[in-house]
Automatic annotation (TrEMBL), chains A, D:
This is 1,2-phenylacetyl-CoA epoxidase subunit A. It comes from the Bacteria. It comes from Catenulispora yoronensis. Transmembrane segments: none annotated. NCBIfam families: PA_CoA_Oxy1.
UniProtKB/TrEMBL annotation, chains B, C:
This is Phenylacetate-CoA oxygenase subunit PaaC. The gene is paaC. InterPro entries: Aromatic_CoA_ox/epox (IPR052703), Ferritin-like (IPR012347), Ferritin-like_SF (IPR009078), PaaA_PaaC (IPR007814), PaaC (IPR011882). Transmembrane segments: none annotated. It comes from the Bacteria.
Length: 315, 250, 250, 315
């Protein structure tokens, strides 16, 4: 079995739920997919914060659709995790109790409307760079979920860029708002690629298993290289005095990341960690009676079987 | 001056806009992830209807007002939505009760409006009636589950349908605009929608093992811009950012 | 450009304004009628302090901005209040915990500021310190009652002091403005207020049979205009009407 | 005792709590004072609705102080009622359960900022006209409470007038807002004087007992006569086409009041009856644990008596 698994990995083929897999491989995937799913649903909060105040109906519709997509991504990803023999309720419980993490980026607050643009452009942009290689991840259900998710994320990323573009080319106040958002989101976005390769705990094994295909620093460099011309197109300044093109490397050099901040946020001490988890737990607890009612209804109507149609509806 | 069709489109557009706003408040707080998707979906459909209707109203009134001018630059007293759609979300059962009443009404309305002599309204209705059929179904299924679920869910669902019942009378009130347009076949006389609505709602409430509400309190005033106090706060939040930067484009 | 004293007055003025706004949300919802009177009274005192401070800041910056221009026409990022005062009311215990922390701080601050070399600030402080002595006493008495009352009230009061504790660190942070002015004797170095504050708060918490909070999370950013998400909603509501009618006088 | 009571009444002297009084007199007073107290505290809601949105800091301070005064009036009035052997908790319970009423005027919503002015000018104005004679009411504690209350109400009334004056003389939109408020509050204000004399159930006995000194219609006429020139000064139009000066009567004639609406609102079917009572009950229920804590603390610290100072504070 082990041999068969290694053969599939070596041939760059997909492992499917029915296939045998090493326990450590399964655990790594569960952890990673769950964290990804949690990030989608926690990520709804900072953006959801502005839906009711979106400054035009068109932007409101775009934002609402985006947040809806995130809930949808959460659903696929929890389903992908469930193919590994865990269930959503347990994963949510792990999120609520702090045993599992979500992306630290969502522990920063959305302070202005421009932050909605910055999240689309930078945060979704970084996510895509992280996720594109995952479309070829060795675990089939995760790889397939990523195909759909990446497609939608690209769309979100362009919308975020367009939102910021309009602000940056709007009134002086709007331009300042866009620049301020870039100032606040730039460094946290760079941290989204995880710690430097030298310190990355899980990377080597994940690369061997073809869960991961590029190192954190490689992906971070790609993000910087892509973002620099985009910032120019926006007419905004990336808040890094050390940022410059390095002809020799064929890449942009950039400043030193404040990993202390990263560790603080990861440890639960970001500006919004407590609020995010508290809001999630509150929604879950407030919804308990609803979920109970749906279960009770389904049980009643499958037990007596006298109303097939309602049954289906309650499934 | 504004035309009757413009006024009518504004009424229906405001209904959709304000209900969409209320539903979007649920974002990231729904009882389960599937409902985060579903409620956002309802909000999006309604927002789409609102945009079509407000744009149409603006074009007819001939003052050059866009959908955004109408949504973000009118005051409380200028909004024409019924009181039902502005009622606070309450718990999930209250939201479902509001959906049951309103989606059932909107389904009957749009179904009839498909025959409107006004091509724009007929076109909107033909598209929207399909969306609203899903909204109604969503509300019906949840009314059944909550009504016939646990003791707690039944109590809450009954409370929801009871508390919002008074606000349903206004849905079927014929104001001068609707009457005039109904005469020419452009609009629907709201009174004609009531029998089908009531039969449909009563059937669901009975199937959900709930008691049909009654009572003779029938608050009204939304169509004349006399809203409830909660509405001003909703509007303040909705318009805050737009008004913070007068004249800016987004 | 604005002067350091103008910036300092804006910081203190924003603290008072935003806490006043939060307290006024209690209006007609307090646990008993005496508290409706008391909380309105605290809100009024703070509003009075805010008006003096904002007017002074506006006069110093020399751009002709009135107290209302500063209160109603700045954006979220331009407000300089500490994060503590913008935290939502929560239950009555949470509100009391916020009062205990803030009024104790404000009492120490104003007591020291009576000696300011800036005559306006010294004058304001001399008046305000008497008001704030009452605020502190009000918070102390309720902390004792709730902490040493019933099991439920103790649990809630402990939760209140625990949850807000992290936000107290920012009260004693010395930013460039405060440091510069402290040097000339116009302002108080906030760091010097901490020992008396902490002794006073610890004594009350102990007498209330509660446990002194700890933990090293120390959120900050208010003085630099980086607020919490709740602040934007508070501000939107506060400014909604004023912004609805640009240029109108009231 | 009865004779002594009637002697005092006839001499226009005050009945005090220690004096004997007929049970019906006591009951009438409890009902009236309680209704008056309830009106003060329910009246905080429509005005409280605008405190957080007041458009200038000066107006915010004025409104906050006014609502605070209303809470204070509630306190005096409950205290006056308590001299008649009832207690506040029972009266509040009667309010919450609907057994006792409050003034119907507070069942109308405050839809715009101008409504704050209209309430001050018209509602407080009508209240003052109702209350001035109560300063000479035969029951001492009530009469004395009214002296202080009337003084503060006059102040509020002038502030409301001034607020409306500034609106009516402001921009066209502000003027329209002021006129709209007058349109909505005028008729409900006339109804504040109660049903026409011919149909007033309690009036005759109350007049005999010197609780009341003028008939409903008399006071209503006085209100109209006072308001007409004030509306002119404001530059606003009272929404009554039948309103005109009657030289012969020396009073203004005015249109027919829609008593059906009055009866509906009284019966609980005004625009806000349900919301007002629900908000009141919620505040009371949410505050239960606080009141319990204060009682528990007071009991502990009076029982062991080791901390006199805290005791006092908790009283």
């Amino acid at each position: 079995m082990q041999a068969r698994f290694e053969e599939l990995i070596a041939a760059d083929e997909r492992i499917e739920p029915r296939d045998w897999m090493p326990e450590a491989y399964r655990k790594t995937l569960v952890r990673q997919i769950a964290q990804h799913a949690h990030s989608e649903i926690i990520g709804m909060q900072p953006e959801g914060n502005w839906i009711t105040r979106a400054p035009s109906l068109r932007r409101k519709a775009i934002l609402l659709a985006k947040v809806q997509d995130e809930a949808g991504h959460g659903l696929y990803l929890y389903a992908a995790a469930e193919t590994l023999g865990v269930d959503r309720a347990d994963l949510l419980d792990a999120l609520h109790s702090g045993r599992q993490k979500y992306s630290s980026i969502f522990n920063y607050p959305t302070l202005t409307w421009a932050d909605i643009g910055a999240i689309g452009w930078l945060v979704d942009g970084a996510a895509i760079i992280n996720q594109i290689p995952l479309q070829r991840c060795s675990y089939g259900p995760y790889a397939r979920a990523m195909v759909r998710i990446c497609k939608e994320e690209s769309f979100h990323q362009r919308q975020g860029f367009e939102l910021l573009y309009d602000l940056a080319h709007g009134t002086a106040e709007q331009h300042a708002m866009a620049q301020d958002a870039l100032n606040r989101w730039w460094w946290p976005s760079l941290m989204m690629f995880g710690p430097p390769d030298a310190e990355s705990a899980h990377s080597a094994q994940s690369m061997a298993w073809r869960i991961k295909r590029h190192s954190n620093d490689e992906l971070r460099q790609r993000f910087v290289d892509i973002s620099v011309p985009q910032a120019e197109a926006l007419g905004l300044t990336i808040p890094d005095p050390d940022l410059r093109w390095n002809e020799e490397r064929g890449h942009h050099d950039f400043g030193v990341i404040d990993w202390t901040e990263f560790q603080e946020v990861l440890a639960g001490n970001g500006p919004c960690n407590r609020q995010r988890v508290a809001a999630r737990v509150r929604a879950h607890e407030d919804g308990e009676w609803v979920r109970q009612a749906a279960l009770a209804y389904a049980a009643k109507h499958s037990a007596d079987g006298r109303d097939g149609e309602r049954n289906v509806a309650a499934a | 001056m504004t035309t009757p069709v413009a006024q009518y489109a504004l009424q229906l557009g405001d209904d959709a806009l304000i209900l969409s706003q209320r539903l979007s408040e649920w974002c990231a707080h729904a009882p389960e992830l599937e409902e985060d998707v579903a409620l956002a979906n309802l909000a999006l459909d309604l927002l789409g209807q609102a945009r079509t209707l407000l744009t149409y109203a603006g074009s007819l009134e001939g003052r050059g007002r866009s959908e955004d001018d109408l949504a973000f630059l009118r005051t409380e007293r200028e909004f024409r939505n019924v009181l039902l759609v502005e009622q606070p979300n309450g718990d999930f059962a209250m939201t479902i009760a509001r959906q049951l009443y309103f989606a059932t009404y909107q389904y009957e309305l749009y179904a009839a409006l498909c025959e409107s002599t006004d091509a724009e309204l007929a076109g909107l209705a033909a598209k929207a009636v399909k969306e609203v059929a899903y909204h109604r179904d969503h509300a019906v299924q949840w009314t059944l589950r909550l009504g016939d679920g646990t003791e707690e869910s039944r109590r809450r669902m009954q409370e929801g349908v009871d508390q919002l019942w008074p606000y349903t009378a206004e849905l079927f009130e014929a104001d001068a605009v609707a009457l005039e347009l109904a005469g020419s076949g452009a609009a629907v006389d709201p009174r004609t929608l009531r029998p089908a609505w009531e039969a449909s709602v009563a059937e669901v409430i009975e199937a959900a093992t709930l008691t049909m509400p009654s009572g003779d309190w029938q608050p009204r005033g939304g169509r004349a811009g006399k809203h409830t106090e909660a509405f001003g706060l909703l509007l303040g939040e909705m318009q805050a950012l737009h008004r913070q930067f007068p004249g800016a484009a987004w």
